[in-house]
Amino acid sequence: KGIVKDIIHDPGRGAPLAKVAFRDPYRFKKRTELFIAAEGIHTGQFVYCGKKAQLNIGNVLPVGTMPEGTIVCCVEEKPGDRGKLARASGNYATVISHNPETKKTRVKLPSGSKKVISSANRAVVGVVAGGGRIDKPILKAGRAYHKYKAKRNCWPRVRGVAMNPVEHPFGGGNHQHIGKPSTIRRDAPAGRKVGLIAARRTGRLRGTKTVQEKEN
């Protein structure tokens, strides 16, 4: 049993973090842990962790003890890895089914894919807070600059055709054009490996979804 002391902003992450204070099981002192905050938790709230915990938002319990259809986040991939799946803001996974014989549970991940994990894996009940973050348009370059300054150096992105031929295989020319096929074989050397790498097909996706799936 822990108590939510504070909800803090983490630079470089869309979701807020919750500071939870637990009593140390071995020594007479307090331990603070950081959790990815589930939507709806507040400071002063009690958070329960373990097999016997109730199914309330913010509580941590093994996926095997949850009923089917439960919405969870920060799910462990292997038991004891402290949560690897469905951690971005507004994301959640859904418990689909249990198999008591093999002690496995199927969960549906935010990507839509389904994954079979051990029923002993723990998860936080609820949706990650900070949802709807990407609905607001960035609108100006300065905001993008500050966003990626906190994250990683991947902005601004210069196109290959806008470069000089010395800098990129697609560079140069009197107007911006690639000038060679943009598909490239898988075993090309590192400097040449740009464009559509080992593409199975190119061009517009035509036809209905079933036709597209058949082609893939």
Automatic annotation (TrEMBL):
SUPFAM superfamilies per the UniProt record, alphabetical: Nucleic acid-binding proteins, Translation proteins SH3-like domain
Annotated region (Disordered), positions in chain: 166-191
Gene Ontology, cellular component aspect: cytosolic large ribosomal subunit
Coiled coil: none
BP GO annotations: cytoplasmic translation
InterPro entries named among the record's database cross-references: NA-bd_OB-fold, Rib_uL2_dom2, Ribosomal_uL2, Ribosomal_uL2_arc_euk, Ribosomal_uL2_C, Ribosomal_uL2_CS, Ribosomal_uL2_dom3, Ribosomal_uL2_RNA-bd_dom
Domain Large ribosomal subunit protein uL2 C-terminal: 55-190
Keywords annotated in UniProt: Ribonucleoprotein, Ribosomal protein, RNA-binding, rRNA-binding
One of the record's GO molecular function terms: rRNA binding
Large ribosomal subunit protein uL2 RNA-binding domain ranges (all copies): 1-49
Keyword Cell inner membrane tagged: no
Classification via Gene3D superfamilies: 2.30.30.30, Nucleic acid-binding proteins, Ribosomal protein L2, domain 3
SMART domains (alphabetical): Ribosomal_L2, Ribosomal_L2_C
Oligomeric and partner information: Component of the large ribosomal subunit.
Protein family membership: Belongs to the universal ribosomal protein uL2 family.
NCBIfam families in the cross-refs: PRK09612.1
Name of the protein: Large ribosomal subunit protein uL2
